Amino acid sequence: MDYEVQRFTRHCATTGRELVPGEEYYTALVVEGAEVRRLDFSLEAWQGPPERSLGSWKSRVPMPDAKRPRLAPHEVLLEMFAGLEGVEEKADMRLVMALLLVRRRVLKLEKQETDHAGHETLVLFNPRDEATYRVAGVMPEGARAQEIQDELSRLLYAGAE
After folding, report:
1. Is 80:152 a contact under the CB 8 Å cutoff?
2. 45: Cβ–Cβ under 8 A, 6 or more apart, which residues?
3. pTM for the structure as a whole
4. How many CB atoms lie within 10 A of CB 77?
């Protein structure tokens, strides 16, 4: 399922203040009925993710002359994803990588399975090499989500200022 996510609003959802280049801010995606709404918050207004949020992250307003970050090529993403297979302490990162690859249409979600104990597994297909991957539904929680975001940003993005 794809969601249409609004672009950066450049304004704090709580105070209405314009967020200026170089300023750090938080973003939360909040479910409102059948819609997903993006809310941006200044640091001083941020009180944690709002109720019904799907996710949140911290970012920085880009400078007007900043280069846009470029994500690593698909081959690099796939290699990193494959390298995480069987690494138990990085199972949550592997799930995030899998979702990123599905979002970028590199992998296709074939089905989602749930075993008798309630553990979820995503079954993904790579049409380029016809490989099938099974990914445990291990969601990162709390500070771990930020750690994964930081690690992936450091490893997979180039050209950002």
Report:
1. no
2. 12, 13, 14, 15
3. 0.59
4. 20
